[in-house]
Amino acid sequence: MAKIVGILGGMGPAATVDLFQRIVEATPARRDQDHLHILIDNDPSVPDRTAAILAGGPSPLPVMQAGLQRLVQMGAQLIAIPCNTAHHYWPTLQAGVDVPVLNMIQETAAWIRARLPQVERVGILATSGTLAVELYQRALEAEGLTPLTPTPGELETIMAAIYQVKAGRLTGEPQALLRQAGQALVERGAQALILGCTEIPLVLGDGDLPVPLVASNQVLAEAVVREALAGERQPG
């Protein structure tokens, strides 16, 4: 039997819907019954992760822990969190439940090493919180890759775009701002770019910049399908 999947969502709601859609599309299904059983806890009251990390804002951890417990109580056997910055709290979240919580950061770095073997220098488009705690920098270095990060000015541009997307603006200025920041990283030597905030792939995609764009939420969706179906079709 395939594992029941739980999505710890609300960070933000659009990114939660996007992950659900990507899981559906990534599942090798020919009929309804071939798809995964997915539970979603979409609690948008989770405090802002970047504000908690950088400005001493309210911790998102208690709300996230409560959401994880609800998912486990409903029967989730595998959990995904479609928020990169929330992975700062991943060790504590994983320690609090007995089911696997996929690590989107590690999955993304490993995906680049496996799928883009020619790439050595990777640019990171992410929130200031994700970058400040070096989630992607450490994960990339562990895979033998060189991370390239935005300048403070570029980071302001990225954050402005992300908050516009969270407010529901999916065309125009946010896409232009993200292209601008991404192009700056490419000009400094990035051979691929991580879309390391789950709002970014909602407005930026393949062909928008001259290097491969690695959407962290797509990597997470593929990891969910892989792990949920692992061992399901073992020969009897």
Describe the structure.
The strands form two sheets. Strands 5-4-6-7 form a four-stranded parallel sheet, sandwiched between helices. It has 236 residues and is α/β, with parallel strands linked by helices. The mean pLDDT is 95. It is built from ten helices and seven strands. It is 47% helix and 12% strand. It has two domains: 5-103 and 219-229, Rossmann fold, CATH 3.40.50.1860; 105-215, Rossmann fold (3-Layer(aba) Sandwich). Strand 1 (5-9), helix 1 (13-26) and strand 2 (38-42) form a beta-alpha-beta unit.
Number of helices: 10
Biggest sheet: strands side by side, in what order? 5-4-6-7
* CATH fold naming of the largest domain: Rossmann fold
Q: Classify the beta-strand content into a percent band.
A: 5-15%
Unreliable stretches (pLDDT < 50, length at least 5) are: none
Q: What is the helical fraction, as a range of percent?
A: 40-55%
Q: What is the gyration radius calculated from CA atoms?
A: 17 Å
CATH architecture of the largest domain: 3-Layer(aba) Sandwich
Main sheet record: 4 strands, parallel
Give the integer mean of the pLDDT values.
95
Q: Tell me, briefly, the overall form.
A: globular
Overall structural class, as computed from helix and strand content, comes to: alpha/beta
- The level-1 CATH class of the largest domain: Alpha Beta
> Care to count the β-strands?
7
